[in-house]
Design a protein that fits this description.
This protein is mostly beta strands. It has five helices and 48 strands. The strands form 13 sheets. It has a six-stranded mixed sheet with strand order 2-21-24-23-18-17, with no helix packed on it. β23 and β24 form a beta hairpin. The chain is globular. The termini are far apart.
Length: 683
């Protein structure tokens, strides 16, 4: 419980803020200058708080939203959502599915494949169409919704025929009727216990502009959409029964207040991480006089806390509380003048029973997530550029039950665009790679930290840091940044780069004594690393000139069987200067299939450029043969899909036995693996 003295202090402060609380111009001036937006925290959280402290903390955040320049908000950390290789044999044959960060943790994708049917999410034609007109009727706000263009997409279902390298469209799930403000972004498949696809899960977001009351120069109150304010968003799940793929039907719909940060699926449990920004109706943005400020304060003070928390609806029914006050974790050390009005929620839904299993929330900033089959970590970077730390909050996952297990902090920051590469859990230990720039932006210091939760403690203890006194060797040469990280069991791989690419191999077999076991320098750099068998590593990156400027796309194979002596055993350069691949920063664009004990196949999409001239999109096909001995990297060929814009759509591929399906911009092409120049489609 928080100390009661804090509430007494807040009570005195509230008297200054609200005055008489009547909304009259004769009341005391509402002054929010003492309020401070809470920074992200790297300290333990607690849900053992008094209701008053939680309400004050949340409402202070609302006050800061309408302070009109009176507040002193702290620096915010931008929220980034990361993107999301599973080989399976549910249907006949050997085929690939979504490439994922952690085996056993499914991730959403734009394309799903079950060996019989392809489920393809169309490409949005995003744009912004502002069609609003200023109005003086504050009661009529429906005409103010701006259009974001045609964001929503249809979902195409195609039956595949791998033996003939063909596909046939059998059904199309149309875009939602309100396609101007709804954006589908993620797909999952849900199977029966026998492994047959039962449901298709489509996750989307519905954007509604925030409409504020605003005072004009003529002292007339207008209702205007605040185009530069975050929209009110709803995360929506549409579950389609696809037991008969030719006749998909909606079987369940879920709406959750808030923006979707990301999702993961473990077995039948779908975990959704959302961020909710509470809204109070009738607020006047940037109030210019005392009466307006007092009106805002009165509305905030009188708002029931239950109406500020996120809710959910099933099949458009009555809203139910997603979380309650005691489900929310706040920083332990709260100051009475601090506030934060965004609620991050972790919710677990059982897709077999179509029910909420459990939900918890954090009233603090987070910037990304990492999930293992048994844990979910949310984190953020705290502090200024001179002294940055990364805090991670651990939640245990147990068949949908979510329990807070503690918070840890390490020096430096990590790549929040792809945090699931910078973090990894094994045997209850969290390994995390960060970069400290306290000595200057051009003098980064990279560290590996290993953390573990302690029984009876809410602190994730750092058990070891690398480099250290026993292992002083630095990770990276002076001035080099981290370009890729991959944890694979007892090993870790880190790529740093400034002019050449050092690949570092870390020995993590002893959680308390990690070390740099080997190092290899090669031209260029890699941004994605993928395991091949027990002793090889495939990479996607770019070559570089003598000044460190990227040139062609580079595909390379490393022999890491000898942990102390990694070797490059083959590389291919694709395209001219300026060529690029989505697989450089989107692991789902990299598709991979093991064919027998000794051969692996993978595909990499490349947009071919020559200096400033775009040439074409191609999907390049590679084989790694001899994995049980001396492996070799071979380029089989490439598939050219005509008619696609170089910038539009996401490239995906699926491999099924000797057949290849290439999906780009919602269209599907196919070929046999050995003859990719003979293309069928688009379907």
């Amino acid at each position: 419980m928080f100390p009661r003295t804090g509430y007494a202090i807040f009570g005195a402060l509230a008297a200054v803020l609200v005055g008489c609380g009547s909304g009259s111009e004769r009341g005391a001036e509402v002054d929010y200058s003492h309020l401070e937006q809470a920074s992200p925290v790297a300290e333990p959280l607690s849900n053992q708080h008094d209701l008053d402290s939680f309400a004050n903390y949340l409402k202070n955040g609302l006050r800061l939203q309408v302070a009109g320049g009176q507040s002193r908000p702290s620096a915010d950390v931008a929220m980034m959502a990361e993107a999301a290789s599973d080989t399976t044999s549910r249907a006949s044959g050997n085929f690939s599915d979504t490439n994922v960060h952690v085996q056993g943790v499914d991730e959403a994708d734009l394309v799903k494949y079950d060996g019989e049917y392809l489920y393809v999410l169309g490409t949005p034609r995003a744009g912004y169409n502002h069609q609003t007109q200023p109005q003086t009727d504050v009661a009529s706000t429906s005409t103010f919704a701006p259009s974001y263009g045609s964001l929503a997409q249809s979902i195409r279902i195609l039956r595949t025929n791998p033996e003939q390298a063909q596909a046939t469209a059998v059904a199309e799930i149309p875009a939602p009727e309100d396609d101007d403000n709804q954006w589908r972004s993620q797909l999952y498949l849900h199977e029966t216990e026998q492994g047959k696809t039962q449901s298709l899960i489509a996750i989307s977001e519905i954007y509604e502009p925030v409409v504020w009351l605003e005072q004009s120069d003529e002292d007339v109150t207008l209702a205007r959409p605040m185009l530069y304010q975050p929209a009110r968003t709803t995360a929506r799940l549409d579950v389609f029964d696809v037991a008969t793929p030719e006749d998909p039907r909606v079987s369940w719909t879920l709406d959750i207040d808030g923006h979707l940060i990301n999702s993961r699926k473990v077995g039948s449990i779908l975990y959704l991480v959302t961020r909710h920004r509470p809204q109070v109706e009738g607020m006047i943005h940037n109030p210019s006089d005392s009466a307006a400020r007092q009106s805002n304060e009165q509305r905030i003070a009188q708002a029931p806390i239950s109406e500020l928390l996120p809710s959910f609806q099933i099949d458009a029914g009555e809203p139910s509380a997603l979380v309650r006050e005691n489900d929310c974790f706040l920083p332990k050390s709260l100051k009475p003048n601090q506030g934060y009005a965004e609620i991050v929620t972790i919710s677990a839904f059982d897709m077999d029973t179509r029910a909420l299993v459990s939900s918890v929330c954090l009233n603090t900033q987070v910037s990304g997530l990492y999930a293992s089959p048994t844990s979910l970590y949310l984190g953020a970077t705290v502090g200024d550029w001179e002294q940055r730390e990364t805090g991670v909050h651990k939640f245990q996952l147990d068949e949908g039950q979510i329990a807070y297990r503690g918070t840890g902090k390490v020096r430096g920051s990590l790549n929040w665009a792809a945090p699931s590469f910078s973090m990894d859990e094994q045997d209850g230990y969290l390994r995390i790679v960060t970069t400290d720039r306290s000595r200057g932006w051009n003098d980064p210091h990279h560290e590996l930290n290993v953390l573990r939760s302690q029984e009876g403690s809410d602190v994730l203890e750092v058990v070891v840091t690398l480099p250290n006194a026993e292992e002083p060797a630095a990770i990276g040469k002076p001035g080099e940044d981290i370009y890729a990280v991959r944890f694979l069991g007892d090993r870790g791989y880190i790529v740093t780069f400034e002019r050449i690419d050092p690949l570092y191999v870390l020995d993590l077999s002893d959680h308390h004594s990690p070390s740099i076991a080997g190092e290899l320098e090669v031209p260029g750099f890699a941004t994605y690393l993928h395991p091949v068998g027990d002793g090889y590593l495939a990479s996607v990156g770019q070559d570089a000139d003598e000044n460190g400027m990227p040139t062609e796309v580079k595909i390379e194979l490393f022999d890491v069987r000898d942990i102390s002596n990694p070797q490059s055993v083959g590389r291919h350069l694709v395209g001219g200067r300026g060529s690029w691949s989505q697989a450089l920063n989107d692991l789902q664009s990299f598709n991979f299939l093991q064919v027998g004990d000794d051969q692996f196949r993978f595909t990499v999409p490349v947009s071919n450029w020559s200096f400033d001239i775009w040439r074409e999109n191609r999907l390049y096909l590679y084989e790694i043969n001899g994995v049980r001995g001396e492996a070799e990297l071979q380029m089989v060929g490439s598939l050219l899909a005509e008619g696609g814009d170089h910038w539009r759509g996401s490239a995906r591929a699926r491999l099924h036995d000797d057949t290849l399906f290439y999906i780009h911009d919602g269209k599907v092409w196919s070929s046999f693996w050995e003859s990719p120049e003979l293309v069928n489609g688009p379907f």
